[in-house]
Structure to design on (155 residues):
């Protein structure tokens, strides 16, 4: 087998990292949407996160979904949720372990919301790769204004 043939059988870096975000999302206990995120620098994963409640809190799949009970549409009233978003958990994981994420890339199963986008802007993430959209025009606007490259990848 030639090296060119071997290269063609390997996933690209984007495919590789996106597939890992999908695996990370499987840890989610959210009853509405399972989201995974990883932060990558120099082709190395430095933090992961999935959407779910803070440590020590009963999971939504055990107590029910507050957003469903209140009939909150997707993309609205983010504060009405027991859980953190995958991107937030990845940022917290890096912080807890004293790892700077400045200049890194975020891979996420879903486009970040406006709250996560503000955090990613201040954390100085340089590129966001995502598979599925999310209804939040403010996030799109702020990321563009901050000069963060946003790339939609095919799942």
């Amino acid at each position: 087998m030639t090296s060119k043939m071997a290269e063609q059988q390997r996933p690209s870096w984007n495919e590789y990292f996106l597939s890992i975000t999908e695996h990370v999302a499987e840890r989610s206990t959210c009853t509405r949407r399972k989201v995974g995120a990883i932060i990558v620098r120099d082709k190395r994963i430095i933090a992961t996160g999935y959407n779910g409640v803070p440590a020590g809190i009963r999971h939504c799949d055990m107590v029910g979904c507050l957003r469903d009970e209140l009939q909150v549409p997707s993309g609205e009233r983010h504060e009405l949720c027991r859980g953190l978003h995958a991107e937030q958990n990845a940022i917290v994981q890096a912080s807890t372990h004293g790892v700077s994420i400045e200049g890194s890339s975020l891979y996420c199963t879903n486009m970040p919301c406006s709250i996560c986008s503000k955090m990613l802007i201040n954390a100085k993430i340089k590129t966001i790769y995502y598979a599925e959209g999310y209804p939040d025009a403010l996030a799109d606007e702020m990321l563009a204004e901050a000069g963060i490259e946003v790339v939609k990848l095919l799942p």
Strands lie at 36-41, 44-50, 105-110, 127-132, 149-152. The first helix runs from residue 3 to 9. The chain is about 35% helix and 20% strand. The longest strand covers residues 44-50.
